[in-house]
Amino acid sequence: MDEHTLDPEERLRRAGHVILDGVVAAEADPDVLPGGPNPVELAFGHLLEIGAVELKMDEEGDELELDISPLMGGVMLVVRRLVAELAARDQVDPESVVMSVRAAIDQAAG
After folding, report:
1. How far is CA 40 from the centre of its chain?
2. Do residues 66 and 53 make contact, with C-beta atoms less than 8 angstroms apart?
3. How far apart (Å, rounded) are the C-alpha atoms in residues 74 and 54?
4. DSSP tag of 44
5. How far apart are alpha carbons 55 and 3 in whole angstroms?
6. How high is the pLDDT of residue 31?
7. What is the pLDDT of residues 42-91, one digit of tens each?
8. Average pLDDT for the chain
9. Residue 72 DSSP class
10. How far apart (Å, rounded) are the C-alpha atoms in residues 69 and 57?
């Protein structure tokens, strides 16, 4: 099955899995395959295969359009699930988790 036969929900689901693959790949030991392919690039390369990222020519044919809506949908699936998991684990509402993550991002940024 190629990206042209995937229904939109399946494309989002697969994009979510690719995002998680990228997270795992980012944690991989670089010495496992020294000089080999970058595991993160390999993981995210699947986004093109499933049609989560598409480059198209617009109707008039004078501009390129980058469609990342399936990718963003997959990211939303992952983030929403992780927020729900953290909220359940810590017995707080999802908004508390989001506020905590925002504070951590702001602190990391400096």
Report:
1. 12
2. yes
3. 14
4. H
5. 13
6. 64
7. 899 999 999 999 888 887 878 898 999 999 999 999 999 999 999 999 99
8. 89
9. H
10. 16
Q: Which residues does 14 contact at the CB level (< 8 Å), separation at least 6?
A: 6, 46, 50, 52, 74
Give the three-state DSSP class for 31: coil
Predicted TM-score (pTM) of this structure = 0.80
Amino acid at position 69, single letter? S
Contact assessment for residue 39 and residue 28, using Cβ atoms and an 8 Å cutoff: yes
- If DSSP codes are grouped into helix, strand and coil, which group holds residue 65? strand
Which among 1, 45, 37 has a CA at the least distance from the CA of 19?
45
- Examine the pLDDT at 19 and tell me if it is beyond 70: yes
Nearest Cα to Cα of residue 97 among 106, 105, 87, 107: 87
Domain boundaries, the chain: 8-109
